[in-house]
Amino acid sequence: MSKIHRRRRSELLMRCIPMLRAYARSLVEDAELSNDIFQEVILRLLSAPNVPDDVLGFAEHGRQLAWELARRAPAPGGESQLEEEPLDPWLDPERAVDTREELQRAVHHLGDEARELLVRRYVLGENARELSSGRTQTPAAVRVRLMRLRSSARAAR
């Protein structure tokens, strides 16, 4: 793996850590097991030869790894923690087209910075403090910006 590629992967990982930690915690009830799953996901993301180079693909790959690990993890009774995969409207072919088209209509007028902010908050699960780091805005200003973006997206629907 080249130095540039390693740096990009580290950047993606740093952006996805809060979301991956929360997702692992949502999959299993045991905090220690969720930490084990989270750590294994991080190791696999760092060592895998082929991972997506975009933030959404990288995050989805990490969630899929966490899901697989949680599915295989034994519950206290000895059975798998998860019986079936949760429904995701983005993966359900019947709902995916309508959902994506509605989302595109709602955010098509927004700029790249605004779309990135929405993705980081609502897809990756970053909070206002995390979103404000690296920006000249305070967490309160980021919350106000998100509120205005949500209002604008609702009005565009």
Account of the 3D structure:
With 157 residues, this protein is mainly α. The protein folds into two domains: 3-72, no CATH class; 93-156, Arc Repressor Mutant, subunit A, CATH 1.10.10. Helix content is 69%, strand content 0%. The longest helix is centred in the first third of the chain and has 25 residues, at 3-27. It is globular and about 45 Å long.
Q: SSE string, helix = H, strand = E?
A: HHHHHHH
Q: What's the N-to-C terminus distance?
A: 43 Å
Indicate the overall shape: globular
> Main β-sheet, in a few words?
none
Percent in helix: 55-70%
Structural class: mainly alpha
Q: What percentage of amino acids are in beta strands?
A: under 5%
Tally of strands: 0
Mean pLDDT: 77
What is the total domain count?
Answer: 2
